[in-house]
Fold:
Amino acid sequence: MLDFRIGQSTWLEAYGINDMKQMVFPDIKIRRRYSKELEYINANSSIAGCGALLWKVKTEAYIRYIAQGLPVLRVDYEKLVERTQPVMREVLKHIGCKWNDSVLEHHTRKHPEMIHNNLTVGETDPQRKVSNSSIGRWKNKLRKEDVEAIRYVTDDVYEQITQQS
Structure:
């Protein structure tokens, strides 16, 4: 499992599980909708499955927004880190903001959201320029069981979203 720590907990343990409890567990309709995934996550004590379910819920919302004709913009991580300026120009245009070169200078600014060791949640270094160095890193970080859990939870939605690309 990716080891992004905040003190003694991983980011997902500290934030993702709480988000999921708030988002999934209080609503009986949502619990029924994701009962198969929740059973798998519980049976396998899968933190990766939990994170995958959060991704799935949010991605399904994105798919619904598109179907409803809402003005959403898909931003793929890989494109963002490989072609930062054109992607950020598109994001700013989408939200009605003008381009400013300072958007690309985040690494030169102070970041009060840092938790420890000058890093943010997920062990992100805000002093580092955007780069593509983490693309594919999951292959060396996730265990086989983590990948299986992620695929089990997300494959149906992943197929939908890749067909939209």
User: Anything to note?
Assistant: The chain has a mean pLDDT of 84. The two ends are 28 Å apart (CA to CA). The chain has one domain: 5-164. The longest strand covers residues 5-6.
